[in-house]
Amino acid sequence: MYFYSFKLVLLGDYDIEKGIFIKGPFYKVVKSKYPNKDILPRKGERIRLTVERNVVIINYTTKGTSDVFQPPWTKNILDEGDYTGVKILKGTIVEIRDVSMGSFPGMPAVLWVRVSYVPH
Q1: 47 strand-pairing partners
Q2: Biggest alpha carbon–alpha carbon distance for the chain
Q3: Residue 32 Cα distances to 11, 18, 71, 96, 115, angstroms
Q4: Per-residue pLDDT tens for 27-48?
């Protein structure tokens, strides 16, 4: 089941015009196949979470995992029904499977990633 394989977590709020994080980043890249560094994480990179992160699925309490592939930022404001109760602990290393960023007028962009655990 995808819910257990891939998890959506927020990595920070980002000012696209200035190219800086306003909140976060809540991660550090620990392994990358890309030759150049980038401020934003990329698919395939491994990151270490620098703070505990909640796993979010839009409408989780009412629809289960049916919206697992819909980026949380598309809802604009999350409510308690979007939080799965699963947390990924600070210091956990995960691999990025997908990156999604979006914003609404007058608000910073939010950076969400779909991650999977890295076997030890």
Answers
A1: 29, 94
A2: 43
A3: 17, 24, 23, 10, 14
A4: 999 999 999 988 899 999 999 9
C-alpha angle 116-21-112 in degrees, rounded to nearest 5: 30
Q: What is the average pLDDT value for the chain, to the nearest integer?
A: 89
For 107, phi then psi, to 5°, come to -120, 150
Q: Which two tokens stand for residue 67?
A: 């919206």
DSSP bridge partners of 27:
49
Pairing of strands 20-23, 109-117: unpaired
Q: Give the pTM.
A: 0.87
Structure tokens at 78: 């999350």
Say which amino acid occupies 44.
G
- Residue 53, both tokens: 């992160």
* Per-residue H/E/C for the chain: CHHHHCEEEEEEEEECCCCEEEECCCEEEEECCCCCCCCCCCCCCEEEECCCEEEECCCHHHHCCCCCCCCHHHHCCCCHHHEEEEEECCCCEEEEEEEEEECCCCCCEEEEEEEEECCC
